[in-house]
Design a protein that fits this description.
The chain is α+β, with helices and mostly antiparallel strands and 377 residues long. 33% of the residues lie in helices and 14% in strands. The longest helix is centred in the N-terminal third of the chain and has 16 residues. The mean pLDDT is 93.
Length: 377
Amino acid sequence: QVVMNLGSSHEATREFARALLKSKSEGAETIPMLRAVAEIEGLSVSRKTSHLEAAEEWIADAKTDPKLKAEYLRAQIVSKDFERLEARLPKQQKESVFKQIKEHSAGLELREIAKQKGVSIADFAKFTPESFEHEWSRFPKEGKKATLGSPDTETNRSGNEAQREVTFKKPFLTGKTQVTQMLYALVMEENPSRFKDGPGSVEVTINGKKIQMRPNHPVEFVTHDEATEFCRRYSGLMKNGIKYQLPSEAHTEYVSRAGTTTQYPFSDSESNLPQHAWYSANANGSTHPVAELKPNALGLYDTQGNVWEWQRDWYTGDTSKLPKEDPEGASSGSLRVIRGGSWLSVAQYLRSAYRFNYGAPGYRHDSLGFRLEGTPE
């Protein structure tokens, strides 16, 4: 938001962004993005030029840290000025900068896919950048031990939450947000969501089809089969050596907990839940745009609430019998697992260990969506 507002045509908006930049937020000095923006804004003031002109000069300077350039351009991927800025990269840095962007974002590939499908720059700019970003979970050779499930003493515990220790060895990436209506429509060229109308609703043309959506709300009313098909098509479009699929519920709990063993990813108390999750107490009967609330310790948004997330696992009531290393769910069954809770859920369903055998693969509901996982092919 600071990046975009510094480039605004309105002086009051630019002044507000400068004030934000100068504020001493907790840990702000360590965020590469703010370091990059601060350097550019300093150049803008000293040169008495616009933020965009200063950014061009800053990017063109071969002495500027490529890591900071990657951070800044990652936020600009949805901007109409991206090509103008990217063109100023020194040739010797371009490959390195793009590699660093792709480590955390699918934005470069999606921008190209959007062009191929006739999506205007103005419509592509409706994406929130976080919605196509991801975080990797990588482990040492000996693996990473983690505790899943809940202890017998946990409040509101269910009988299918056997506490167990598992080991993760294979790397995987997790989407920073739940799949949005915009991303789903870009791939599938349709939007099944119930919450496509209302504040923020727009019509976007994709491959000649006019599709109504609230771009950054999570897609919902989607079946397990449809979510799986989305993953298959997304993998085919990306062509980046990564297989995209629905998450395993073991991976989902691992990244949701982010190293914690408490009821919720931040404490045993529900008191902080409204800062992190949209649920029955604060959602007002609807989904909300992704990445509006605080992320967890891994930088993932809405791991609790907003929409339930389909898992690739078949449901089993006894997880203690599942593999201890890189665990997958049952090999067959009639019901799929969902995790995380939704805008409709009470707090106990947002506990990190809560598991729900919600429905058959063809079931759909307006509280049910999904998140992407990826593994190297």
